[in-house]
Amino acid sequence: MSQPDPAYDVRDSESLQAMFGPVDERSLFKERDHVDANYRALIEASPFFALATAGPEGLDCSPRGDPRGFVEVLDERTLVVPDRRGNNRIDSLRNLIVDPRVALLFLIPGRGETLRVNGRARLNTDPAVLARHTRDGKVPKLVLVIAVDTVFFQCSRAVVRAELWNPAKHVARGELPSAGRILADASPRPFDAETYDSALPERVRGSLY
Length: 209
Hints:
Blueprint: H1 13-20, H2 26-29, H3 37-45, E1 48-55, E2 58-65, E3 72-75, E4 78-82, H4 91-98, E5 101-107, E6 114-124, H5 127-132, E7 143-154, H6 157-162, H7 179-186, H8 193-206
Antiparallel strand pairs: 1-2, 1-5, 3-4, 4-7, 5-6, 6-7
């Protein structure tokens, strides 16, 4: 299969806009500079969002998830997000030390519409705030305090096309390489993929927080 011919690359904004035509005004007036009551309801219903950041080492997009309502809408221009236990790569957090810009994409199970938030984040360790976000007796090491610049919902077309919430389209675990298989193939040393995979579900359940 051949690579796309670079001669057909779109290289300027004018050409790009001409391909798509005028912007639907509804896609403009739905954008707010604050979290209104409607957008607050969507955020509080979401148990998951993807967090995009940028830094000297490049871009990062990582998942954030917890029971619905885990993102605290402190006021119409401020969100507070606990940083839960992970693999300690902290790529997103390292980026935010040098570049505070963030983009969030919220998903709501069963809903086609997503919610997009753009803003600036700072890392904070205020003990009173951390205590508010304690879960299963575990206090987060820090929270992200996000100053909202823009917020707007995205229409359902992408989720509908993907049939994201259709159980009949869920991919069976055995159809894809397992986490253990991926690690075994990447490891410079012998790695027991079968043992890793068999222990993984319980290890995840025991280390959520």
